Amino acid sequence: MAKVHTKKSLALEIEGRPYTWDEQFITGKQLKNLADIGLGENLYLSLPDPWDDELVENEANVDLSREGIEYFFVKRALHFTMDGKEFSWDKQFITGNQLRRVTGVSADFEVVLDSPGDFEDIVIGDKERIDLARPGTEHFKSVHTPTNVTLIVNGKPKEWTKSRISFDEVVVLAGFGAMLDNPNAVLTVTYTNGPKKNSEGSMVRGDKVRVKNKMIFNATATNKS
Fold first, then answer.
1. Distance of alpha carbon 192 from alpha carbon 157, whole angstroms
2. How much is the mean pLDDT over the chain?
3. How far apart are alpha carbons 135 and 147 in whole angstroms?
4. Most buried by CB count within 10 Å: which residue of 11, 42, 81, 111?
5. What pLDDT, on the 0 to 100 scale, is given for residue 14?
6. pLDDT at 224
7. Which domains are assigned to the chain?
């Protein structure tokens, strides 16, 4: 019996709205028609840092079968403030990490969305996305969060005086710092009992997480066979 092939709908997002497409490839013109965007607009494919976003010409083909969801946007200048100073951004969404980079907020400060009226302000995680196209201007502020906590690293208490800790810093606290630059070393870090935004999880090199008192880290180091 011949095998029946069924088409798989592929997910994409245009200007913050979800869509599906039944073909592996889609052209810039089809993307614009799908989202009712004028053919004269400049549509971009959003690429992760450090790559630049890619302009999608009307006749260009985009492969939607790659891992993850493809995000498309029209470049428009959107404005926000950080600590009262105005900045602009040409995408609809901005992450906490991007806010830090654009505004120069250091890791010793939390990025907070200033909510109107009596609503509680919202702490923005580094990977969290904020929609800048909502009505009104988004106002952010940086809040210093001095801390003096005890972390439990591989079962031993370690004093810590920053609001965040990096993968490398956990490895050093665990006593494996000499293995950080060893290409044959396999280093893993997991954590539990963290703050609400990152209560548990794992870390890879380059990651930073917020800490709280008695947060538990487990680091292991092995050599590749």
1. 14
2. 88
3. 36
4. 111
5. 94
6. 77
7. 10-74 (3.10.20), 78-144 (3.10.20), 149-223 (3.10.20)
